[in-house]
Structures
1.
Amino acid sequence: MSLLELDRLTVKRGECPVVDGVDLNVEPGEFVGLIGPNGAGKTSLLRGALGLLPHQGRSNLADMTPRARARHAAWLPQAREVTWPVSVEMLVALGRTPWLGSVGPAGADRAAVDRALARMGLDAFRHRTATELSGGEQARVLIARVLAQDTPLILADEPTAGLDPAAQIQSCAVFADLAAEGRGVVASLHDLGLAARHCTRIVMLSRGRLVADGTPADVLTSENLRSVFGLRAYFAQTADGPVFQPLSVTR
Amino acid sequence: MLIAALAGLVAVLFAASLLVGPAALGLGESLRALFRGEGEAVVLVMREIRLPRALLGAMVGGALGLCGAAMQGFLRNPLAEPGLIGVSGSAALGAVIALQTGAAAAFALALPLSALAGAVVAVLLILALAGPRGTALVLILAGIAISALAGALTALVLNLSPNPFAASEIVFWMMGSLADRSMTHVWLAAPFMALGAAMLLSLGRGLDALTLGEDAAEAMGIRLARLRLVLILGTAALVGAATAVAGAIGFVGLVVPHILRPLVGARPSRLLPAAALGGAAMVLAADIAVRLIAPDRDLKLGVLTALVGAPFFLHLIWRTRRAAA
């Protein structure tokens, strides 16, 4: 069974469809890079799929009860909000919210938090105050929160935005590893180079429509890049893996 | 640990509140009167004057502290307070109308009942204005609009007041006080406060999740629309009942959660019970202070909390600005 099943998903802002009849299935083991220019509908697609926006068409996530959905899919919003000066450990533990029994965190919850902290290399930060960390450290803490939620499917909205190059690569590597372990990951990405190197599959959106879907080599063609992004780019398979570099603007 | 310490503080202040007053009673004499009913006049003072005053102090303070913590958690803003959604202003308007029309003089419970009715009207208006999917911002704007309207109507009632005595009675009532309350007031407020407290204390997990923002909280399975409804109804029950029996007592709901937040690791769910106890302690302490500072001048409780609270508020803004710089 697919982890994510979207059937003609449409999200409207007023009369204007910002996501227009998108069909998309995501299987275990896939790291899907959702790409498209600003305003293509990447965020609206993810939020509509989760049922956070009113939508037409069908999404298997929006059909679930809130608690069942929260145990199936974790959501990493683009806005990195941390309102209160809580400890890193407590913030990551919030990911356990959908799993908590009436009495509070159990052994399994603490173990999941420990695993998430270790995976993101945050053991040393455990007792630090989350609001006092740098932007990149906060981003890692928030990814750890998503990992603690321990869901088969992870949806992330621009998880690498504002990170330094090393942190961008680390984050993508974590998502790729999670996919390799049998989870499904859908991440909207603006850095096409990262998408080309780490994603198993790329979905390209333009004006709310899904215009291309396949392996990085299938999707990042010069024709697609020109018509959707207005870009000319260098893309080659090298000894170090696929290398993608935008070169110039064509319009 | 913190909760136990705060509970101890409330117990001590509650006892002190019972033992401080214009009638100079000995310690043993007071306690014998309270618990065994020995000594007719002393029994009257203890059971009919001081006990309701201490009970109401703890209840009103607890209600305001709890609402403040819940409201700050929901709006994710340390400057939010229970009065923000317009319930206290509307409750005050209800009370003022009861005073103005003379209903309060004719029937003792007319004032608190009318204040509660004002709170209910405010809640209905907020729910209508903020709609089913309204965000925290819409709620704040609706609250400000309702507060402004209630304030304007209160001013109108004062403006049209037939004689200066009615006007001064209204003004004094609006300053907030626990003097001359009876057990009837306690029984009137208790069910609303118990219900409101149970509602707000159930929100801890959702408020914790909101630390990550509305979108993330909703995706973690929190039903935000339901959380908001419970928050509004619970706050209305608590603040409406508190205003109905004690008038407007400001700054408790703002200041108490602020002082206690660092002591609970900033966790909204742990702040709820702590702020309830802290609020009870603060109002009990303030009510003892008004009796000690000016025993014969009837210094109003709301005046004292505002005098202490406003400078604290300035300090808060100052610190926020420095942290941002």
2.
Amino acid sequence: MKMKTKFPKVTLFVQCLVNGLSPEIGDAMLKIFQKLNLPVDCPLDQTCCGQPAFNSGYRKQARAAAERFIRIFEGAEVIVSPSGSCAHMIRRYYPVLFDEAPRWRARAEAVAAKTFELTQFLVDVLGVEDLGARFNGRITVHDSCQALRGLGIREQPRRLIAHVAGAELAEMRDPDRCCGFGGSFAVKYPEISAAMVDDKVRTIMATDADVVTGVDLSCLTNIQGRLSRLKSTVRVMHIAELLASG
Amino acid sequence: MNTIRPEDYTSAARKALKDRVLQKALADFQDRLGKGTARAYRELPEGLGLRQTAHDIRMQAVENLDILLETLVENIRENGGRVIFAKDAHAAVTACIDIARRHEVKQVVKGKSMVTEEIGLNPALEAEGIEVTETDLGEYIVQLAGESPSHIIAPAIHKTREQVGRLFAEKLGIPYTSDPPTLTRAARKALRQKFLTADMGVSGCNMACAETGHITTVSNEGNIRMATTLPRVHVAFMGMERVTARLEDHDVLFRLLARGAAAQHMAGYVSYIGGPRAKDQVDGPDAFYLIIIDNGRSKILADPEFREILYCIRCAACLNVCPVYGKIGGHSYGSAYSGPVGAVVTPLLVGIDRAKDLFLGETLCGACKDACPVDIDLPRMLLALRARLVTGDPTWQSSGGRLGEKVFYSAWSAAIRNHRLYEGIQRTVGLTQKTLTGTDGMIHSLPYPLKGWTRSRDLKPLASKSFLSRWKEIQ
């Protein structure tokens, strides 16, 4: 495995959902970086990037979260998160939060510039596509909105999957269509959200895939919730879990 | 049908979700047009960067609006047209009624115009005893049905041809048929009569040009050209932001408008109208009026965070890709403007508190921004509206968020600033969830406020040990 760039250390930003709901995704990330011989750090005092507050309009609270995040992570060489929407929050909106505080804004920009979503980091920064993983099954990819439109992540997960031995990629119809999660949208407007995720799982099931994967656990939790309710056998796996398989 | 009711968003959306005909119509329509537009952009000889050029053109125009409007007005007056500035909907409607009275107008034919929907022109003219006929086929269908348009450029997409067949049988007295060409011919016959007898034509204005002093209108049915040429009087309405400096700007904008609106390279009919019939001309009205409407736009102009929405050219490309619009349809938005653009512009026109569901009820997926021919950052403004809802802002009729939610985010803010407290809360939740978890290892039912989630979805419970706890152990 040749890398374009060498980093002394990768600092993980775990994302609240991964930390609480699916710690195995964090384990998978550790395994991936171990394979790449990259030392990993993971600050224990990390919490939330502030995205839920920001998306709900609570900018003061989001700013407090951002300040804390910046203090904890600004010493890192590179910050990697298994979540497209968290990475997007930091990259796109942290600087905006400090529009009226130039010194904080500069710190926010510095942190934003070295924060990456996992597949973006692997493919675009490290130039690694083959992680020597093996997974037997048919896989379909859901494009998470913030990752896709905010960070331009479309090809990265697909290229990585192409190198997973035994994996077969089966594209769903409209993989870039929103799954209907939208943070608090899913609980504030449950009927609309349910109709959207219902469309999404139908397109997933139509591919006959064994696994649906993606780069954001929030979308995947939504999709998994609906698949489970419909008693579907399609398994939901975060891309990190796939890449750490075998 | 011009009642503005953004408050009914949730109930209207529920109704739309149960309407199978509408669901299929929306899905087919978005599949065709949303994808068609993306394709049409990719085929642009200048590449996707043309959207940025268009963005800059609109930005420059909006930044120099005062000068451009002055120039436009001077040039239109020179061409023999008359211009009226209307500060609000009432002033605009009154001006039109005055013109109608002065010219003894009995019958009006209209080209499609969203701004006249915004100001409620039709019912006001009808109250004066004036007969108003919409001449865009979709708009005509909607008018006959006593409904309002559900899409900016495809007003009747919520109706099937069978429904239109029954409507025409009842209103136009033709034998029932669901054959589109036969129905179109019937509408054409009925409308032709109206065109020939109307005294006044009313149109919108897709974009005005300051240096030439004209307005440009586009249609695919030729009806706007008829409505603005045949009657004695032409009254055009324009939102005050719909002007650019140069004629060259129109070239860029109209090529993009056609792509955004209908995945076309150019609309079927593009008309440049610059005043009444000149002495050496055979066709055209005796009198031409342009009513320039503010109705809240200068307030938007004054707010740097929302000014960008004035770049909008009302093509509806954002509606054609929005996954929320694709489920709830245009009527749920409760105003003339639906979809992502409606979710931004309606709250700015009628007040943030009243229309909060419009900007909260979007997923921030960003498809609208990618589809916008002038690259407007709609998600940024949806977020900005949410922030104004929370902080409160009397300028935009926002009284400042809900108490329960405020308490929640204050507590959240305290928790995330203390990682031990944060872990502790997670652990406590982890303990309470045991009773909620089913034999399949999933949670099937949650109390308020998460009840909405489990109505149609399960939820994975929290892990017994968080990743950070595991990490701490292996260090």
